[in-house]
Amino acid sequence: MSEIEALLETGQVQDGAPPVLELDRVTRSFPTSPPVVALNEVSLRAEQGDYVAIVGPSGSGKSTLMNVLGLLDRPTSGEYRLMGRQTTTMRERERTRLRGSAIGFVFQSFHLLPHRSVLDNVMLGETYARTGDRKGRRVRALAALERVSLGHRVEFAPPQLSGGERQRVAIARALMGSPGLLLCDEPTGNLDSRNTEAVLDLLDDLRATQGLTIVVITHEHEVSERAARRVRIADGTLTESA
Ligand SMILES: Nc1ncnc2c1ncn2[C@@H]1O[C@H](COP(=O)(O)OP(=O)(O)OP(=O)(O)O)[C@@H](O)[C@H]1O
Ligand SMILES: [Mg+2]
User: Fold this and answer.
1) Residue of the CA atom closest to atom 26 of ligand 1
2) Closest Cα to residue 201, out of 127, 130, 149?
3) Which pLDDT tens digit goes with each residue over 83-94?
4) Which residues approach ligand 1 with their CB closer than 6 A?
5) Hey, which of 32, 55, 64, 231 would you mutate to test ligand 1's pocket, going by the most ligand atoms within 8 Å of its Cβ?
């Protein structure tokens, strides 16, 4: 088996693992005048391989929730355990390290560097690499690009790609560092229906083959329908629908 094949085989489901994420009565309020309670005693749990869509109107707290889940923001009260680790009391450095190793981010606008190759863009996904070697990083980036079926585009620059291909590059970048959790904020917001399908198929496949846990914020019915769980957020309060 080649090094790339070996990497593609990693990330299988482990028995007895703690929940990937566990929010326990998390509140995030902002001390504005008047104060805003963007998240109000939110509890949410996701296991390895879960696929959760979060839907809700503008201003309902979706981005605030994503920021908390992504360790980019801290709750005002309540607890957040990620991969079994209590993050609420962690120092910033430790949170940054955990974020780099546990979480991949995918955004609506792909955030690729236009003047760098596809391969370079993906390699940059491993900012907090556990191993600093460039050669290893290159091999892992090539494996990630194979994973999203873009092995034939590694030397292209992002402007030479279609929207769907760009988002797949962004997903490959998010896969660097082998995260257990993929946080996607409107991942298909800039894509037509054909490319939306391709990206959704890829997310399905990653969940099924690598046991990735996926949380996706979306306004699109087509996207939330593909998730196994749908959670509504309104005025900072979550309700899960069947
Ligand atoms: N830094 C902040 N200071 C004060 N209030 C904030 C801050 N960030 C968000 N809010 C408020 O918290 C609420 C939730 O905002 P959030 O950005 O999470 O909404 P959203 O669901 O992502 O909306 P959209 O769909 O428009 O992106 C809003 O009322 C917003 O004004
Ligand atoms: Mg938002």
Assistant:
1) 58
2) 149
3) 999 999 999 999
4) 30, 32, 36, 38, 56, 58-64
5) 64
Does residue 36 lie in a domain region?
no
Interior CA angle at 48 toward 44 and 54, to 5°? 40
Q: Residue 233: pLDDT above 50?
A: yes
First to last CA, the chain: 42
Q: Which structural domain, as residue segments, surrounds residue 153?
A: 3-18+48-71+98-241
Torsion of Cα atoms, 84 then 88 then 93 then 94, to 10°: -10
> Residue 133: what pLDDT?
80
Q: Taking the CB of residue 118, how many other CB atoms lie within 10 A of it?
A: 25
Classify residue 82: in a domain, yes or no: no
Record the pTM: 0.89
Protein residue whose Cα sits closest to atom 2 of ligand 1: 30
